[in-house]
C-alpha cells in the first residue's frame, strides 16, 4: 500500500431518509430511504481515489453485514484499505435526515471507529505517504499519534476537525500542517483552544468577517496553513505570509450537501499530490470536487470521478 494519499479515520454505514421537511418532536412523517457507505474518513478516501490519485484508507469496522459490505465497495472503487475488524463492536453508523431544501441532520454511533489505535496503522503505509489526513470521528489520541508519526516520516499532515467534539485541546493541533474546518467547527475550535483570540466573535460572525479579520483569526490557531470552507462561497486559504478567498463554483444545482466537506478534503489531498503541494491550486481543485458532490444525493456515492471533474473545470 504505497500510496501518496493516506486517510486514517471513520467508516459509517449511512442510513439516509429524504423528507420534504424535518419532522417536529413527536411527529411522524413519510419519506424515502437509501443506505450506503459513509463516514468522514471513508468519504474523503473515496473522493480522493475517484480523482485518479492512489489512496489508502485506514479504519475499523465490526464483523457484521455493514463491515462486510464496505470491503466489496472498496474493491469496486479501487481503494486500497487496511481495516481493523472487531467481533464484539458494531460498525459505525449514521442516521441522516435530508430535507427538500438540501439541509441535513445527522446522528452518528461511532462503534468500531473508536476502538482502533495508532499502533494498528502500519508504519509502511505512513512512510510512503505524501499527505496523511485525519478527522474527529475516531479516538482523539489515535489521531494525535498518527499525525505525529506521519509528520516525523515526512508527510504533510491534514486535520479536518469534523465534527468538533468536547475535549478537543490545543495539543491536538501540534502536529497539524494544514487545518481544514468549516465555519462552525472553526469557531468552536478557537473557542476551545485559543478563547482569547475569539474575543466577542460568535460563530455567525465569521461569515461577516472581512479577509483581514479572517486572516488574524486563522493565524491565532497557530497551524501553518488554515483552509476555512465557506459553503457556496468557497474557501478562505490562510498561510503565514498570504491569504485569499477562492470563490465557490457557480451554476450548479444543489441536491444534497451532505459530505460536501468530505469531498473538499479528499479533493484537496488529491490536489496536493497533483499540483506538487501548491496549496492554492489544491484548494481550487477541492472547490470543484465539492461543488460536483452537492449535485448528487448521498455521501461517498456522490463523489465525482476524474473525467467529470476535468470537464467541469474546463467548462
Ligand atoms: P457538510 O457538513 O454539508 O459536509 P461542511 O459544512 O463541512 O459541509 P461547507 O463549507 O458547507 O462544508 O462546504 C464544503 C465545500 O463544498 C465548500 O468549501 C465548497 O467548495 C463546496 N460547496 C458547498 N456548498 C456549495 C454550493 N452550494 N455551491 C458550490 N459549492 C459548494
Ligand atoms: O460528512 C458526512 C458524514 O458524516 C456522513 O457520511 C456520516 O457518516 C457522518 O460521519
Describe the structure.
With 315 residues, this protein is of the alpha/beta class. It has a single domain, classed as Ribokinase (UDP-N-acetylmuramoyl-L-alanine:D-glutamate ligase, 3-Layer(aba) Sandwich), CATH 3.40.1190.20. It contains 11 helices and 13 strands. The protein has helices at residues 40-50, 65-77, 123-127, 140-152, 183-193, 195-198, 203-206, 211-220, 260-274, 279-293, 306-313; strands spanning 5-8, 12-18, 32-38, 55-62, 80-86, 92-98, 104-109, 131-135, 156-160, 178-179, 225-229, 235-238, 243-246. Helix 9 runs antiparallel to helix 10. The longest helix is centred in the last third of the chain and has 15 residues, at 260-274. It is globular and about 50 Å long. The model has no long low-confidence stretch (mean pLDDT 95). The structure holds adenosine-5'-triphosphate (ATP) and alpha-D-ribofuranose. Alpha-D-ribofuranose binds at residues 10, 12, 14, 38-40, 43, 94, 106, 108, 137, 258-259, 261-262, 299.
Could you tell me the radius of gyration in angstroms? 18 Å
Ligands (ions, cofactors included): adenosine-5'-triphosphate, alpha-D-ribofuranose
For the terminal residues, how far apart are their CA atoms? 35 Å
Q: Please name the CATH architecture.
A: 3-Layer(aba) Sandwich
Strand order of the largest sheet: 5-4-1-8-9-10-11-12-13
Largest sheet: 9 strands, mixed
Overall number of strands: 13
Instruction: Show unreliable segments.
Output: none
CATH class: Alpha Beta
Counting structural domains, the number is 1
Please provide the ordered H/E string of secondary-structure elements: EEEHEHEEEHEHEEHHHHEEEHHH
Determine the fraction of residues in helical runs and give it as a percent range. Answer: 25-40%
Strand content: 15-25%
The global form is globular
Structural class: alpha/beta
* CATH topology label: UDP-N-acetylmuramoyl-L-alanine:D-glutamate ligase
Amino acid at each position: 500500500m504505497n500510496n501518496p494519499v493516506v486517510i486514517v479515520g471513520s467508516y459509517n454505514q449511512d442510513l439516509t431518509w429524504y423528507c420534504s421537511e424535518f419532522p417536529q418532536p413527536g411527529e411522524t412523517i413519510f419519506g424515502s430511504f437509501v443506505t450506503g457507505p459513509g463516514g468522514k474518513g471513508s468519504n474523503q478516501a473515496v473522493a480522493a481515489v475517484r480523482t485518479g490519485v492512489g489512496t489508502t484508507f485506514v479504519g475499523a469496522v465490526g464483523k457484521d453485514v455493514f463491515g462486510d459490505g464496505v470491503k466489496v465497495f472498496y474493491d469496486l472503487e479501487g481503494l486500497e484499505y487496511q481495516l481493523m475488524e472487531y467481533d464484539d463492536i458494531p460498525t459505525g453508523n449514521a442516521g441522516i435526515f435530508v430535507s427538500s431544501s438540501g439541509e441535513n441532520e445527522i446522528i452518528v454511533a461511532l462503534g468500531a471507529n473508536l476502538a482502533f489505535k495508532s499502533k494498528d496503522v502500519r508504519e509502511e503505509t505512513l512512510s510512503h505517504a505524501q499527505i496523511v489526513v485525519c478527522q474527529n470521528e475516531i479516538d482523539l489520541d489515535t489521531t494525535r499519534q498518527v499525525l505525529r508519526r506521519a509528520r516525523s516520516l515526512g508527510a504533510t499532515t491534514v486535520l479536518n476537525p469534523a465534527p468538533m467534539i468536547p475535549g478537543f485541546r490545543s495539543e491536538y493541533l501540534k502536529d497539524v500542517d494544514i487545518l481544514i474546518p468549516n465555519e462552525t467547527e472553526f469557531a468552536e475550535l478557537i473557542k476551545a483552544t485559543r478563547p482569547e483570540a475569539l474575543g466577542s466573535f460568535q460563530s455567525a460572525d465569521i461569515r461577516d468577517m472581512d479577509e483581514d479579520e479572517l486572516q488574524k483569526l486563522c493565524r491565532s490557531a497557530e497551524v501553518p496553513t488554515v483552509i476555512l470552507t465557506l459553503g457556496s462561497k468557497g474557501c478562505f486559504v490562510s498561510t503565514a505570509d498570504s491569504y485569499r478567498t477562492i470563490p465557490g463554483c457557480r451554476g450548479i444545482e444543489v441536491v444534497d450537501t451532505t459530505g460536501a466537506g468530505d469531498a473538499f478534503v479528499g479533493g484537496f489531498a488529491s490536489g496536493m499530490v497533483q499540483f506538487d503541494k501548491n496549496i492554492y491550486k489544491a484548494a481550487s481543485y477541492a472547490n470543484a470536487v465539492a461543488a460536483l458532490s452537492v449535485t448528487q444525493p448521498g455521501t461517498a456515492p456522490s463523489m465525482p470521478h476524474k473525467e467529470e471533474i476535468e470537464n467541469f473545470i474546463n467548462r
